[in-house]
Design goal:
With about 325 residues, the protein is an alpha+beta fold. It is built from eleven helices and twelve strands. Strands 1, 2, 3, 4, 5, 6, 7 and 12 form an eight-stranded mixed β-sheet that branches. A four-stranded antiparallel β-sheet has the order 9-10-8-11. It starts with a strand and ends with a strand. About 45% of the residues are buried.
C-alpha cells in the first residue's frame, strides 16, 4: 500500500495574481504557507479486473475512460496508466470548498502516489507543474497556480509567476522568533459556508481577459501588497503585516459580488472589535475560513466566542507533498 499526504495552505498576500489571465500580461506574486492539515491518497494493487475509486462517491470501472472523477481520469491519462487492478482512495482533514486549496492538494497527492507506484523518481517542482497542467490546461478551471505549488513545496514561500508560465519560488527568510510568532498569532475560524473556488474566480478571470481596468488595477494593488507583506514578515514587523492583510481584504472584496456576504462581514467587524489587528477570508472568497492576526489570543477567544465559529488550530508544514508509506 502507498499512502501520500499533501498539505493545505493559507495565503498571506498577493492571492489572485497567480491566475494565467493576469500573470501572462503582468506577472504575478504572492506569499503562501502550507499548514499541517492534509489531503491523503492511498493506492494499492488489488486482484480484481477493475479499478476501484473511493472519494465522496464510489466508482468501479473497467476502463480509464469510464472514470467520472475528472482529476483522477486526467492524472491516469497523463501518466499513461492502463492497469486496472488498483484501488485509489482519498480523505482529508478539512472538507473541500473551504478556501484552503484542497483541490491542488488532492492533485499533487494523487500524482505523487501514482509516480511512487510506478517507481518514478520525480521532483516536487514537476509534480506542481503536472498538477497545474491537469487542472488549468486540461480541465480549463479558472484557477491559479498557488495551491499546486505550495502543496508540493511546503513552507512559508514567495512565488513569482512569470509571463511565460514559469514559476519561481523561494522560502521567506524569517528568524525563528518571527516564524513562531507568525504561526502562533494567526487564527483560523470556519464560517460554515462552502463554495467552489472556480465559481468565485470565474468573474475575475473573465474581467482580466477583457483587460477590465478596475480589475487590473485592483490586482496590481494586491500584488504590491503581497510584496510588502513578504518584506514586513522577513523584517519581523508582524503587526505591519497584519495591517496590510486588513487592507488586502478591503480590496479583495471589490473583485467579485460573491466574495463575501453580510454574515461574513459581521464576523469580520466583530473580530476587529475583539482585538484582531487584521484579517481576511482565505482563498477565492464566498466562504471557508476567516483568518485573523491577534496578539492577545486568550482575550480574543473569550470576546469572539459570541460568534459561535469553530477555531482551527494549525502549525506550518515544511515538507510539502510526501509519501508516508510505501
Amino acid at each position: 500500500m502507498i499512502i501520500v499526504r499533501s498539505p493545505l495552505r493559507i495565503s498571506l498576500g498577493g492571492g489572485g495574481t497567480d491566475l494565467p489571465s493576469y500573470y501572462k500580461e503582468h506577472e504575478g506574486f504572492l506569499v503562501s504557507a502550507a499548514i499541517d492539515k492534509y489531503v491523503y491518497i492511498t493506492l494499492h494493487k488489488t486482484f480484481e479486473d477493475q479499478m476501484i475509486i473511493k472519494y465522496s462517491k464510489l466508482e468501479k470501472v473497467k476502463k480509464i475512460s469510464e472514470i467520472e472523477h475528472p482529476i483522477i481520469k486526467e492524472a491516469l491519462n497523463l501518466l499513461n496508466y492502463s492497469e486496472l487492478s488498483l484501488e485509489i482512495s482519498s480523505m482529508a482533514d478539512i472538507p473541500s470548498g473551504t478556501g484552503l486549496g484542497s483541490s491542488g492538494s488532492f492533485t499533487t497527492a494523487l500524482l505523487m502516489a501514482l509516480h511512487t507506484y510506478k517507481k518514478n523518481i520525480i521532483n516536487k517542482n514537476l509534480i506542481a507543474q503536472q498538477a497545474c497542467a491537469i487542472e488549468i490546461e486540461k480541465l480549463q478551471e479558472p484557477i491559479g497556480k498557488q495551491d499546486q505549488y505550495i502543496s508540493a513545496i511546503g513552507g512559508v514561500t514567495a512565488f513569482n509567476f512569470l509571463k511565460n508560465g514559469e514559476v519561481k519560488y523561494n522560502p521567506l527568510q524569517i528568524s525563528s522568533d518571527t516564524l513562531y510568532n507568525l504561526e502562533d498569532n494567526l487564527m483560523l475560524y470556519f464560517t460554515g459556508f462552502s463554495r467552489k473556488a472556480s465559481s468565485i474566480l470565474k468573474d475575475q478571470n473573465e474581467k482580466s481577459k477583457e483587460n477590465d481596468k478596475e480589475m487590473t488595477e485592483n490586482l496590481h494593488f494586491i500584488k504590491d501588497l503581497g510584496k510588502r507583506s513578504a518584506e514586513e514578515i522577513q523584517k519581523g514587523n508582524l503587526e505591519e503585516f497584519a495591517y496590510l492583510m486588513h487592507e488586502h481584504w478591503l480590496h479583495k472584496k471589490k473583485r467579485s459580488k460573491g466574495m463575501t456576504n453580510n454574515k461574513i462581514n459581521e464576523w469580520y467587524d466583530l473580530a476587529m472589535k475583539c482585538g484582531a489587528l487584521g484579517g481576511k477570508l482565505i482563498g477565492a472568497g464566498g466562504g471557508g475560513f476567516l483568518m485573523f492576526y491577534v496578539n492577545d489570543k486568550e482575550k480574543f477567544r473569550k470576546s469572539f466566542a459570541e460568534s459561535n465559529l469553530s477555531e482551527l488550530r494549525f502549525k506550518f508544514d515544511f515538507e510539502g507533498v510526501r509519501t508516508i508509506l510505501n
